[in-house]
Write a structure and sequence with these properties.
The protein is mainly α. It contains 7 helices and 2 strands; from the N terminus they run H-H-H-H-H-H-H-E-E. The chain has a two-stranded antiparallel sheet. Strand 1 and strand 2 form a beta hairpin. Helix 1 packs antiparallel against helix 5, helix 2 crosses helix 5 and helix 3 runs antiparallel to helix 4. It is elongated.
Length: 198
């Protein structure tokens, strides 16, 4: 059972939160447009731009009125942001095709899109690795106990003196004491004699 004083480090919590933000609205839009645009000609891309304009306007208007956008969408602000980002990305693809004279869109020829996809894959891998490390630390920490201990004056002086002689800090002496605790069958607790060491 996890002790109530065992709390994950703030850095671990921040890392976990960062891992949950791998897919921004722009990331979702870029990924979807990149996949959907593959093989489309200029006319089809222009239709997608028009659709994105309409959907961006609808979601923004619905959000202003405070209504639900979809029974499947729990975050109407995020959906509106995704459609706004899709509109921008479809326009970028359209403009790129017009500038380069491509007959159809090919994601691998899109330098900007390919750079984004590569960077996003790297961020995603980093986030997954950080999440796995966080989970491993959390699992390891379930058996650990972090406690703040207040001792009266006499035991405090004794622990400090022992720590000074051994070149340790008091918490290290207490940890070594705790590691050597022996509990007998009748419940008696004792610590065999030992020399604190680094």
């Amino acid at each position: 059972m996890r002790h109530p004083l065992n709390r994950p480090d703030r850095a671990d919590a921040r890392q976990q939160e960062k891992g949950n933000r791998v897919w921004s609205a722009q990331d979702v839009a870029r990924d979807q447009v990149r996949r959907q645009a593959n093989g489309l000609d200029m006319a089809a891309v222009a239709e997608k731009v028009t659709e994105a304009v309409v959907r961006e306007r609808e979601t923004a208007e619905q959000l202003r009125r405070g209504g639900s956008l979809s029974e499947f969408q729990t975050d109407p602000e995020r959906l509106a942001a995704i459609w706004a980002a899709k509109h921008v990305e479809w326009r970028r693809v359209r403009d790129l095709m017009a500038q380069t004279g491509w007959g159809v869109y090919e994601p691998e020829r899109d330098t900007e899109g390919s750079t984004w996809a590569r960077e996003h894959a790297e961020r995603r891998e980093g986030a997954l690795a950080a999440r796995a490390a966080f989970e491993a630390r959390r699992r390891k920490g379930e058996d650990e106990l972090r406690a703040e201990l207040w001792l009266s004056a006499a035991p405090s002086r004794l622990i400090r003196a022992v720590a000074d002689r051994a070149g340790l800090v008091p918490s290290q002496v207490l940890a070594q004491l705790a590691e050597r605790v022996v509990v007998s069958e009748d419940g008696t607790v004792s610590v065999p004699p030992f020399m604190p060491s680094r």
